Amino acid sequence: MGSNDTVERIRGWLTGRLPDDWFEGPVEVTVDREEITVVGRIPAPSTEDVSDVERDAALAGRISAFRESTRERRIEIARELEHRGGRKVAWGVDCGDRRELFTRLAAPVMTRLRQPERQVLDTLVDAGVARSRSEALAWCVRLVATNADDWLADLRQALTHVEEVRSAGPTP
Fold first, then answer.
1. Which among 97, 133, 150, 159 has most CB atoms closer than 10 A?
2. Distance (Å, rounded) from C-alpha 10 to C-alpha 36?
């Protein structure tokens, strides 16, 4: 999430800091309380007249090559950004129709659940969908995010408006 100012400030800093030949177009920046995720588009390899298997392998190879060849610089830039932004930095790329995110922060989230909610998690564990309640809860969150994208986008937009109204109000 993150405020628009924060995202714009980070994206602007990255635009000045990233090598010009890394990405096609501007980077996508996502910010939450713990992490800054930076995703850029890299050129897809030519895959005309090839099978889906060969195309998938070509995309995986291109992404892997980018990840390895930029590792040291990405670490250096991430350290600077972590110092500036007070959050961990994760990287990812879009290549063709594939998005791959590199090492991401998995932040522990404490929650209290009543028995019916715990039973849902236990059913997912018992069915082999997840190995633990923690993994089952993460699965549920991903499922909601996938199926409620429009609703979540509207909610985020409303929160942005609330932040703007709050910042325009009188100071305490």
1. 133
2. 9
Beta sheet of 35-41, edge-to-edge order: 28-31, 35-41, 88-95, 98-101
Tens digits of per-residue pLDDT, 120-169? 999 999 999 999 999 999 999 988 888 888 888 888 889 888 888 888 88
Going from the C-alpha of 96 to that of each of 44, 56, 60, 137, the distances in angstroms are 5, 10, 10, 31
Statement: the pTM of the whole predicted model exceeds 0.85: no
Residue identified by tokens 């929160």 is 159
d(CA 60, CA 54): 10
CATH code, 1-106? 3.30.70
